[in-house]
Amino acid sequence: MPVKEYAEIAVGLPVRKPFHYKVPQELRDKVDVGKRVWVPFGNRRLVGYITGFVDKAEVEEVKPILSVIDEEGPLLDSRLLELTKWIADYYHSSWGEAIEAAVPGPLKKGKTKVSPRHPLPEDIYEPTRNFKPTTEQDAALKPILESLSGRKDDVYLLHGITGSGKTEIYLQAIEHALKLGRSAIVLVPEISLTPQAIERFKSRYGAIVAVLHSRLLESERFLEWKKLKDGSARIAVGARSAIFAPLRDLGLIVIDEEHETSYKQDDAPRYNARDVAVMRAKLSEGTVILGSATPSIESYYKAVSGEYKLLRLTERIEKRKLPKVEIIDMREEMLNTKQVSIFSRVLEHAIADTLKRRGQIMLFLNRRGFSTFINCKKCGYVVKCRYCNVSLTYHFDTKKLNCHYCNYQVSPPAACPKCKSEDIRYFGIGTQKVESEAARLFPGANIGRMDTDATAKRGSHRQILSDFRKHKLDVLIGTQMIAKGHDFPRVMLVGVVSADTALNLPDFRASERTFNLLTQVAGRAGRGSEPGKVIVQTYSPTHYAIEKSITHDYVGFYDKEIEFRRELNYPPFTHIIEIKLRGRNEEKVIKAAHDLAADLNAVADPKSVGIVGPAPEFISKIKGQFRWTMLLKGESPRDICGLIDGSLGRLKGKSGLIITVDVDPMGL
Question: The pTM is what?
Answer without folding.
Answer: 0.84
